[in-house]
Specification:
Layout (H helix, E strand, L loop, with lengths): L2 H6 L6 E4 L5 H13 L3 E5 L15 H8 L1 H4 L1 E2 L4 E9 L5 E9 L7 E2 L5 E4 L2 E4 L2 H14 L16 H10 L6 H7 L4 E4 L2 E4 L1 H7 L12 E6 L12 E7 L3 H15 L2 E5 L5 E5 L3 H14 L9 E5 L3 E7 L20 H9 L9 H11 L6 E4 L3 E7 L9 H18 L1 H10 L5 H13 L8 H8 L3 H14 L2 E3 L8 E3 L5 H8 L4
Parallel strand pairs: 1-2, 11-15
Antiparallel strand pairs: 2-5, 3-6, 4-5, 7-8, 9-10, 11-12, 13-14, 15-16, 16-18, 17-18, 19-20
Helix pairs in contact: 6-7, 9-10, 10-12, 14-15, 14-18, 16-17
Length: about 500
């Protein structure tokens, strides 16, 4: 990772930026959240709101405190990889930014206060008691990909394909070393090599020898519904086997041959060809089914059912984690993080959590309905409709979506808005500077009070209390109950300008 990549990257499901001035207890929150979710990277030494490069080389004491966080502030401890990225800091000095690499963990982790957090989008979400119980369950189900495959040996692994993959990701060691040293694909116990489920599914010579129903079945029906018995209307039935990558490629290619096209003369006099389903949508449905299937369910396979007016993709396993049919567009939880990471390197998974939202956008652009999701105890169905199905009005849905996007954009502009708000006040320049620095350094969801302000500003207690009062007067913080007196968080979803104008020149 380069400093340019760190600066250009948006904070998301698997990436965050933190100031070198963050406290150890506050850094524990995103570390715990990443470990409980899909893993991720935290770049330390860059302010997350302004992307100001502070660096770490001249903050040895603070750096050492932060390096101990995965051990001293996380329960149980979290394995973290460390990378130092060269940079030039805000003062023009040669410096470094620290990148913490956190892998998805098979355990549920908490901070010192025994609070459990989960990474959801670009936020670390505090889990309720019920959500904690669900996370414990999902962690157990999720790590089926790590289970040892009985009777599997190293001879069952296609080392040529492993070499092809390691070349793709620029891994310099041998294929065997990669499998031993990365993601627990293979382990040694009592002098014997143990092969994981993920290793067989991703790199196996014949994965179906061990998982017979780990395959994709395509069924084409005549008409708009599935019929049985003497009325059975199946006209094509094709099965795809092999590694997960091979199945995905073959299923996508075959489905492409089954999709109808319509060519017509466009308004500019050139011919236009429309497909009955957008290509990305077709691809994403298959990739999602393979990536997130519950491979512990061995009695059935992934099925792609194609009708005259819709496609149904069935994948064993219900929605994982906090994901529900009503939040699937923007909520993500990987049941199989190692499989997801592998497919990401083949560009099938671009960013965790973006696929469903992009599907909805592409369907909307061609006037089609969003995917419809149905779930039961052991199966998830995703349904998309083509142009032959009854079209519906999307005015209300579009309005809601635009409002949601507006809220997101408002959040992105919050720093600029509050800066303008501060400038509109009659405070003196040192006070304005102090308020801006506090907002810059303290996270949106961080609980803080005058002592934390005192630490950030390196100021007296009276100055810190005065800044706290100004923040309350401006209406940009809200009190947090149950954490002691004088504890607040920054408000993340309000109209800054309106509130500040209301407070206005009263101060």
């Amino acid at each position: 990772m380069t400093i340019e990549e760190i600066l250009s990257k948006e904070e998301n499901q698997t990436f965050d930026r933190k100031s070198i001035n963050i406290s150890p207890k506050d850094l524990a929150i995103p570390i715990v959240a990443f470990a409980n979710a899909d893993g991720g990277d935290i770049a330390i030494g860059i302010t997350d709101k302004t992307k100001r490069i502070e660096g770490i080389d001249f903050e040895t004491k603070k750096l050492n405190e932060l390096l101990r966080v995965p051990f001293d502030f996380c329960n149980p401890t979290i394995k973290v990889g460390i990378e130092k990225v060269p940079c030039v800091d805000e003062k023009g000095r040669e410096n470094h930014v620290l990148v913490m690499h956190i892998e998805a963990s098979p355990q549920v982790h908490a901070n010192q206060a025994d609070d459990v957090f989960l990474r959801v989008g670009d936020k670390s979400k505090l889990q309720t008691f019920e959500e904690r119980l669900q996370l414990n369950y999902d962690k157990g189900e999720r790590y089926f990909e790590d289970k040892t495959v009985p009777d599997a040996t190293i001879d069952d692994i296609d080392m040529d394909f492993v070499k092809e993959y390691t070349d793709k990701i620029d891994y310099g060691k041998s294929p065997l070393e990669y499998l031993k040293e990365n993601r627990g694909f293979i382990k040694e116990k009592d002098g014997e090599i143990q092969i994981s489920t993920a290793a067989i599914l991703l790199f196996g010579k014949n994965p179906q020898n061990f998982f017979p129903r780990a395959r994709i079945r395509f069924i084409r029906y005549e008409g708009t519904e599935e019929k049985f018995g003497t009325e059975m209307n199946v006209i094509k039935d094709v099965i795809f086997e092999g590694t997960l990558l091979n199945m995905i490629n073959e299923a996508i290619a075959y489905l492409d041959t089954q999709v109808k096209e319509k060519t017509y003369l466009g308004p500019d006099g050139t011919f236009v060809t429309d497909e009955e389903y957008p290509k990305f949508v077709r691809q994403e449905l298959i990739v999602n089914a393979v990536t997130h299937r519950a491979y512990s369910i061995t009695g059935t396979d992934i099925q792609i059912k194609m009708f005259d007016d819709h496609i149904v993709v069935e994948s064993p396993g219900k929605l994982p984690g906090l994901v529900r049919a009503d939040n699937i567009r923007f909520t993500h939880f990987s049941r199989n993080p190692k499989i997801a990471e592998f497919l990401k390197n083949y560009k099938f998974v671009k960013e965790f959590g973006e696929g469903v939202n992009r599907m909805c956008n592409e369907l909307e652009q061609v006037g089609l309905k969003d995917p419809v999701y149905h779930t039961n105890a052991f199966m998830l169905q995703a349904v998309i409709y083509n142009i032959n199905a009854e079209k519906v009005s999307y005015l209300s849905e579009k309005l809601a979506f635009e409002n949601e996007k507006l809220a997101i954009e408002s959040g992105k502009l919050s720093f600029q808005n509050i800066k303008l708000a501060i400038e509109s006040q009659t405070y003196n320049e040192p006070t304005k500077k102090n308020i801006l620095k506090v907002y810059e350094e303290i996270e949106t969801n961080q609980i803080f009070g005058a002592p934390e302000i005192e630490r950030v500003l390196k100021c007296s207690a009276s100055t810190a209390k005065n800044v706290m009062k100004k923040l309350k007067d401006m209406g940009v913080v809200e009190e947090v109950k149950g954490k002691g007196k004088g504890k607040y968080t920054f408000i993340s979803d309000f109209n800054y300008v309106k509130k500040v104008n209301e407070a206005g020149t009263n101060h």
